[in-house]
Every structure is written in C-alpha cells, then in structure tokens.
Amino acid sequence: MDIGEEWAYRARQQDEVTQVRIMRIGTNRPPRVLIRFMEDRFEGREEWVSPARLKTTWDKVDEWVADDQRWTAIRDASWRSREDPELRAAEMVLEVENLPLDCISTGYNRDNGILFINNVAELSRVLGLDPTELTSCRRRVKTDPLPTGENGPPSTVGSAQRGGLGGDPPSSPG
Question: Is 3 helix (H, G, I), strand (E, B) or coil?
Fold first, then answer.
C-alpha cells in the first residue's frame, strides 16, 4: 500500500465498494490510512480509515467483487446453526470415517455449513470419488485459495452422506 495508489474501499459488509486514493499512511496505533474518495458524489471528501477497509487495488476490483459475490452465494446457501441436526449428523459421520484432519475442516460463525477441502486429491481417495465430483461447477465450488463449496460435495452434509452413508448427495438448485 503506497501513497497515490487507488483502492476499493468498503466500510461495511453490505456496502458497495467505491474508489479511493491513498493520501497518507498514519504512524500511530491503531493503523490508519488517509483516503480521498474519487467519485464526484463525495465532493473530494477525505477520511482516516482502517487499512482493513481497503479491499484490493482498484485495477483488480472486478475480480475481487466477483470473488466476494461467490463467497456470499456459498454462505447464503450453506449457513446452518451449529445446533442444526443435519449439520451435526454430517460432522459426526465425518469424524467416524476418520478422515485425515488436514484433508478437511468445517467452517465456523458465518461459515457454518461449509466444508473446506484442504486436499482435494486426498479427500477424493478417501471417499472413492473422482476429484471432479468434488469440484464440478454445478456444485458452486470456489477453488481458490482453498477449494470450498455448498449443497452437495464438497459440502459437509453431501460429503458425509457420500462417504459415510453411501447415498447420493442432495441435489443442488440450478
């Protein structure tokens, strides 16, 4: 992050990103960055903000927004309460199957219901599936930085049904 660079700024999760320019980098704690809003509607407004609100350089904003929308879709389709009986059952089956701990992990908080596959090849081997069955586009999978998905493999419920109960995973809409 350097003075003069243009970044995508978002104050809150539900806000749209807007273009800003870095004017100064603060020296005190907590870290702050002086930004100038570039759109005319802000009339040159400047504000000291947390660097965490600067999401990506402006030249990569379209890629960042698309990635953020994929995560939102995965979370919206997958989120379950930690007490959800189907989620608990799926997690119990995965534990019984003794899947390698570094192979998968389950999400917490806003990622409840999402299975993070840390090693697609290993999970494919353990479940006896072709890796493409865990990463097919019809399952709304995000493969970077970690392969993840929802509504069927690689979701927690779908992988547990496939690996532990022998049934087909639930079908995903569209």
Answer: coil
Stated pTM of the model: 0.59
Return the amino acid letter for 146.
Answer: L
Task: Report percent pLDDT > 90 for the chain.
Answer: 29
Residue pair 147/123 in contact (Cβ under 8 Å)? The answer is: no
Higher pLDDT, 81 or 156: 81
Query: What percentage of residues in the chain have a pLDDT greater than 70?
Result: 71
Specify the pairing of strand 33-37 against strand 104-106.
Answer: unpaired
Q: Which amino acid is at 65?
A: V
CA distance linking residue 83 with residue 85, whole number of Å: 6
List the chain domain ranges: 6-58, 79-165
User: What is the H or E stretch that residue 6 is in?
Assistant: strand 6-9
